[in-house]
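Ticket #347: bound-state structure for MRU.
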Amino acid sequence: MLDAPGAPDRKIAALRWDGERLTLLDQTLLPSEERWITLTGAQDTADAIARLAVRGAPNIGIAAAYGLAMAVSVDPSPAAVREAAATLSGARPTAVNLAYAVDRVLDAAMGAIGELGERAAPAAARAEAEALHSEEYLAAAEIARLGADLLRGRRRILTHCNTGALAAPGAGSALGVIAELAARNPAVTVLACETRPLLQGARLTAWELQRLGIPCELVVDGAAAGLIRTGAVDAVVVGCDRIAANGDVANKVGTYAHALAAAAAGIPFVVAGPTSTLDLATPDGDGIPVEERHADEVLGFGGASIAPDGVAVRNPAFDVTPAELITAIVTERGVVRAPFGENLAAL
Ligand code: MRU
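RESOLUTION: The complex was predicted; output attached.
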């Protein structure tokens, strides 16, 4: 099976579920190598998430859901199920989809144990993970449609990180919107920010856009503000890892700078993401945990050192864009605008 249960075969997919085992396209190796890896339980799935073999908020959640389902099949005792859930939830801190997905499968497994006994837990956990996968697939299609409606007439789109089929089921979130916009208007072109330090834009977004046949120019992250200022961009569209209750949004580090530049130039800054990324329990962006990753990611690339030995490093993987810089948040349940607090709660 490719992509979500019941979903049509697609050109690009990040993960496959055969009913028992999860296989992932190892995104750390793209674009030079397309290698699929097979996972069997909580620990190897958590490791794959932590090292970004699978990434992007929705797909992190889906991988974790299947990881827990596989663990429940191996040992459905309540203690083992809780331990596997904790292992998976702890893999990365920022994308709320991870905890959301793990909690759903955990609740399904524990509910089945309480009602019917341990033997019922594996099927219940698998069914919940598959339901989540299907929901995210349908959500992505709706986000693409609503986002393309919203951005009608905008031709030159700047995006950051990777938010396509590698990051979420179906066509993805922000990149799904862009792909739909391009399907409606062949004149659409994309400025893809390379996304230091792990180059999700250069390695993954450019790869996806080439496969989709959508014209794309790769730019270094530092070029974005200047290009926006000089009128080279009609709209900025990005994904999200966590949306706080007031509409503040955490996304890949560098996003905030694009939002500031978009506001200064008076062009739309649009966030696209499923409601599984919405965290109403976190009042604002200051409460979002920002993952700090290893210094090696900044100090070198592809085995080559790019900085002097001993230099100190800060490596926050995400930043928070305040709600007041956001034109609209596109979810599968509708397009949300200010006042975000009120309108997100109403979703
Ligand atoms: O560290 P990553 O590559 O998982 O970061 C991904 C992003 O920041 C994406 O923009 C976000 O998860 C949305 S993916 C549809």
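RESOLUTION NOTES: The mean pLDDT is 96.
TICKET STATUS: resolved
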